[in-house]
Design goal:
alpha/beta, 5-stranded parallel beta sheet, binds NADP nicotinamide-adenine-dinucleotide phosphate
């Protein structure tokens, strides 16, 4: 049995659902993977005056034995910051420096500092994983890493923000922009600061995450061409509807001549386009690959449970890595260390 000790950095909607999901799935995690997990520390913005980086350093030192045994995991679920991805990026660095693994649903660190954090994780021999950061834990990074060996991703196109897709769909039905947005805020799906969703920042951050991880880019949300959704879009939505088209907020990036360009733009799509078929909170991502053509991932339901599941999936990925490392230490030959996605 592997006992993971969890340090929760952020304890809002996602972290609380993660903890309850671990409890609900305790049986299957124990039987299938021999995983047990317990929370050994919690830090929120208001829980103490101590800085969160200091909390992480002290907690990693306090749990040094678990860190050494690769059982200490920092669960980073603080609020998204689209200016610099901070202080979450510093939280990840402090955790890796303390020899803890990091799992996060926060897009900030991967959108702003993916390469340097991946290098820090490799140097520390720990994992930095973020399956829940894009499309709520529906497998994207796991899929590419584990199920698409030797495939190169050359671009992608998708609808990756549930709030704006819900608002666009509601406006097609004649609902108001404000009413539809308020419904998303009540459900906890919209970001704490809903302007991040409607101004396209959340989608730009996801575009940066996808581009950095899947296309090897060095983009940030600020270098992504960005458009949002507002009440004035109603006219365009109804005009598109009248000619059998649908307006969607499409995130995309492709690699051309070694350069990656990311975009989040309102696009009128024909109804035959897979992205045009997405209603309400539905999301989809179409990966353009060199060997398999287009590979599409569709998310019909969104919410806290799939996002929290992304963290559970990351925990299982860490277990597999720990098991591989143990096995490679037992077997002769040079030790192998897998790269992050
Ligand atoms: N909700 C979703 O469906 C969803 C889906 C995918 C990804 N995400 C991402 O997951 C993350 C968490 O989302 P959420 O819905 O759980 O947010 P939330 O309910 O607003 O919770 C955020 C938590 O972060 C804490 N926090 C903020 N700044 C902090 C700091 N500097 N140090 C320590 N703690 C800090 C807050 O503490 P206080 O309460 O003390 O302020 C709160 O506990 C966000 O990055 C979000 O973008 C969310």
């Amino acid at each position: 049995m592997t006992q993971f000790d969890l340090l929760l950095v952020g304890n809002g909607n996602v972290a609380r659902r993660f903890v309850s999901l671990l409890e609900e799935r305790r049986g299957v995690l124990g039987r299938r993977y021999a995983i047990r997990a317990r929370v050994v520390g919690v830090k929120t913005r208001r829980s103490s005056a101590e800085s969160t980086v200091d909390f992480i350093r002290a907690a990693c030192a306090r749990h040094a034995a678990a860190a050494r045994e690769r059982r200490l995991v920092v669960v980073e679920t603080t609020t998204l910051d689209v200016a610099k991805g901070e202080p979450a990026t510093s939280h990840v660095r402090a955790a890796l420096a303390g020899r803890a693994h990091v799992i996060t649903t926060n897009k900030g660190p991967t959108a702003f500092a993916y390469r340097s954090l991946r290098r820090a994780a490799e140097r520390a021999g720990r994992k930095f994983l973020f399956e829940g950061a894009v499309m709520d834990g529906i497998p994207i990074f796991n899929l590419v890493r584990d199920a698409l060996p030797a495939v190169t991703i050359i671009g992608f196109r998708g609808v990756v923000n549930s709030t704006t897709n819900y608002v666009l769909t509601a406006m097609e039905r004649g609902e108001t922009f404000d009413g539809a947005l308020a419904a998303m805020q009540r459900s906890g799906i919209a970001e704490a600061d809903a302007s991040l969703d409607i101004e396209g920042w959340d989608a730009a951050a996801k575009t940066a995450v996808l581009a950095n991880v899947l296309l090897g880019a060095r983009v940030t949300p600020h270098s992504v061409d960005r458009e949002g959704v507002n009440a004035a879009a109603a006219h365009r939505i109804l005009a598109a509807q009248a000619v059998g088209r649908r307006v969607k907020l499409v995130a995309s990036a492709e690699k051309a001549g070694g350069v990656v360009r990311g975009r989040v733009l309102l696009v009128d799509l024909p109804e035959t386009d897979l992205l045009a078929g997405l209603d309400g909170q539905e999301n989809a991502l179409i990966l353009h690959t060199d060997l398999l053509g287009e590979v599409a991932i569709v998310q019909r339901g969104s919410g806290l449970t799939p996002t929290a599941y992304g963290l559970v999936a990351d925990l299982v990925s860490i277990l597999r890595d720990v098991q591989r490392t143990r096995a490679s230490r037992r077997s002769p030959g040079p030790a192998r260390r897998d790269r992050n996605p």
